Amino acid sequence: MAWPLRIIVISAVAAGAVIAVSAVARVSYAPMPDEGDLLNPGRYPLQTAYDILGRRVARDEAERLKATPEGRNDLSAEKGAVAIDDALVKRGRDAFYRETFGNEVFLSDVMGMLDGGVTPYEVARAILLLGGAGTTNLQVRMARDVTVGDRVWKAGELVPTGLDVPRGSAFILGIRTFYDRGRLRMGITCALCHAAFDPASGKVVEGAPNTDLNAGLLMALASNATAYFMHGSADPSAHPGDPSRSVTTEEGGRAPLPDRAAFEAAAKVEVASWPAGSFDSSADRETNPTSIPSSFSAYAEPYSWSGRAGVGPFKGLSALNNNVHAANSDTTQQTQAAKTLFGLDPQVYLGMVLQGAAAPSLHYDPASGKRPTEVLEAADPTPGTPGLNSYAVLPSFPATNYMTDNGLLASVPGEPANYANNAMSAFQNLLRAPDVSADAERVKRGRAVFERVGCAGCHAGPALSNNRVIPVEEIGTQPSRARSTVRMEARLAPSAVFATDTPFPLPPDPKLVPIPMEGDALKQLQLAWAHAGTRGGYKVQNLVGLAWSAPYLHDSGVAVGPDAERQIGVPGTLDAGIAPDPTNSLRALVDRGLRARVVAANAGSQKARTARVTGEGHSYWADAAAGVSGTEQSDLVAYLLSVNALTEPVPVP
């Protein structure tokens, strides 16, 4: 069947099904590629039997432990042990592609992702026009005019979304679409950012970052970008509102909300400044997006650019997975911590988030006489827990601990608390980048240069990382993101998780498992979180899959296109719709002359300055001034691009 006819038939059948159940049902769909549709179907062997709060237990050790009562106790759920088997990995892959933890309510009903310039009709039209070809950058026609700063996106203009549609698919990778009794919603899954369509092969690369995802622009074109204002530098006090639009504060006083239109306009500018392939996951009231990392995560701990996800199951990987869904995809959950984190009264904070909400049930109007929290509670699909997503709530909520920003663990009813996060960790740790075709002799020469110039001093170990956090003063990169969690120290609780067999919803008195931290491990965490008087730092990145993760550095600042003379920095690549070239971008990482041009180009862009993108730091050179010839530099880059898997034969979860 030809593609246009096939999609029309599929659409007609789907429409008929929706009409039949629309009055009572909730249906949803998210695509998950078959193995034959993957460019990297090969996985590491499943050799680790248990994870105990980050300690890997190989299968032979597990068998020895099971032989004694003490050993069986060590492997128990009450000790935080996670049994790793094929069923866990299967659930992890399913969750990676399909699990939203309920974020479709915040994204659709609060942020209004489908009620701004990009509408469901225009998205469906754009997919239909692909004719089944697939794309890394779905071009969607604007449904109406939207002003973002001094730029007006006109109705009919094409938006470069960076959304990936696999070949032959009628759905966007990483988006789960819901039809709920008359309302259409969209939720995001991990695959939106951490899987990518490869147009050269027509296949999907599991674990590769979506390097052109225009998440910030899509938020700016939504109807309520203000719902994400705490992830940017827009200042509500700079946009005073009508005193008649006031809320009753926690202390019983009255406080006005900022002017809705002016504050929304300011919030749009901040999120729109993010480079494609970046996301600002730090709620620190500063715009400081970071490049989306790969999910080639084995032996790459600690996780996140700062290394803040460094404790708990799977050496912090579960903490990273949890942060996406328990903090970044539902800003209403931060209400009770608003005073500590943002210096805002909780009612004022939530009033700002909800005064532009897309759904009438969550839209806050001061004239109603209600408090914002009352509006949230009345419409909350998860009553009895904070925010809109599905959370298992630690007793320490809303305090931070080093496992979770807020004491929340994204969880799915009917399975153990935090199970899906752990399952995704087990799955991600098996991913390896696609095979690379490389000249073996050239790669060998490049490895020799790598060692000679000192790269191996930090980039050592199976994933070419020594798993350390480097103080920001030493690494020299843009410092804003390194200090983004400093306020959380004011309300810090001991780190703990639920016993791994704890059902969700939670029983009345769930078992807690403390996460031990002491000595150097604690100091590294404090550095990663900019606590204990430190100024923060950035972790030594693993180097697996660099061919899929350009641009480089945490701020995406080291970007050079195929034309190294003209396509320089973020303004000359990502902002111009040009994909950074991995070879040229890596050359800029190690060549001080080319890097200087990149830094200058970034500094000349107001958009890059708003997003704090510089490309500075990591001043470790392999260039003529360091005694490295042009040929040797090329060999070094070839070696770096050849690393597609762990470099040592070690057990992998």
TrEMBL record:
InterPro entries, A to Z: Cyt_c-like_dom (IPR009056), Cyt_c-like_dom_sf (IPR036909), Cytochrome_c_Peroxidase/MauG (IPR051395)
Keywords from the UniProt entry: Heme, Iron, Metal-binding
Region described as Disordered: 233-257
Superkingdom as given in the UniProt entry: Bacteria
Stretches assigned to the Cytochrome c domain: 441-644
Name by which UniProt lists this protein: Cytochrome c domain-containing protein
Species: Methylorubrum aminovorans
Organism lineage string: Bacteria, Pseudomonadati, Pseudomonadota, Alphaproteobacteria, Hyphomicrobiales
